[in-house]
């Protein structure tokens, strides 16, 4: 019963894969062969800012002699690390051999995955905490590789911005992203793999207005995927992105499952949702023809699996939303 995570840095791959109820094949750099999943790098690379043994016990205890720490502050006499000190960088990191993890599966190999979980950190607060994807939607979101980037507005304030990295790793691609998306779809179909989109970002509003989805809630969602609960759950279709969203999940407040219920301003939610959909659409234009890597009909099906947007917000509309405390970047 293997699950495969996709996601950019900060989406939660390392944390959610350090699950005491499951064995760890690896937190990054995997291959999917004819025999199953295997890990390439043989280690983990964890964010450790504000790390505590209570929140992440397996990662905390993996930090021992032989671990490489980056961007951390420590006592020059005792060498004790202060994980709460972000004066050097919020991107404090620990790199350690996978055998340091209590739940490591060594050798790091597994069977074909039953579930694929695409982790996205949505800074706009409009994507649901979990949705079930069709094969075409899985290809679309795999090619899109959406995540959060934080930047400054013209007024100098920090605000969420959309970031896209094809196949969640555009800098490492040799072929066109559709080549990899086609390979992914073939393996999903051959092995009955189900794909999920899990938002570990914000709810109730964008970053700075809403709140981050708690780790315990994301873990409850992943647990419900593994148990099969969400596979049989009743779903509602969310507009614009046409995502099938389970209406209930053990351990998650029901009102959080559909993000529009967590926003105080329904109009602001809908406009922000459509704006994010337009950003997806704009990014995907360069991939829409398939570049000959898939048939024209499949390329059209993948493009159609993305968001359907009525119109792009004007600069004036975007500025109006920003002034109301629902800011985002065009």
Which descriptors apply to this entry?
27% helix; Phosphoenolpyruvate Carboxykinase, domain 3; Phosphoenolpyruvate Carboxykinase, domain 2; four-stranded mixed beta sheet; globular; 330 residues; 23% strand; alpha+beta; 2 domains; disordered C terminus; transferase; 9 helices; three-stranded antiparallel beta sheet
Layout of helices and strands, plus pairs?
Layout: E1 2-7, H1 13-17, E2 30-33, E3 36-39, E4 43-47, H2 57-62, E5 68-70, E6 73-74, E7 81-82, E8 93-97, E9 109-110, E10 113-120, E11 130-133, H3 135-144, E12 146-152, E13 158-164, H4 177-191, E14 194-199, E15 202-203, E16 211-212, H5 215-227, E17 235-238, E18 243-246, H6 254-257, H7 266-284, H8 296-304, H9 315-323
Parallel strand pairs: 1-10, 10-14
Antiparallel strand pairs: 2-3, 3-9, 4-8, 5-8, 6-7, 11-14, 12-13, 15-16, 17-18
Helix pairs in contact: 3-4, 3-8
Strand order of the largest sheet: 1-10-14-11
Q: Quickly give the CATH architecture of the largest domain.
A: Alpha-Beta Complex
- Based on CA atoms alone, the radius of gyration comes out at 20 Å
Helix content: 25-40%
- The separation of the N and C termini measures 41 Å
Q: In this structure, how is the largest beta sheet organized?
A: 4 strands, mixed
Question: Remind me, CATH topology of the largest domain?
Answer: Phosphoenolpyruvate Carboxykinase, domain 3
Number of domains: 2
Number of helices: 9
What is the strand content? Answer: 15-25%
GO molecular function: ATP binding; kinase activity; phosphoenolpyruvate carboxykinase (ATP) activity
Pfam family, one: PEPCK_ATP
Organism: Tetraselmis sp. GSL018
Protein name: Phosphoenolpyruvate carboxykinase (ATP)
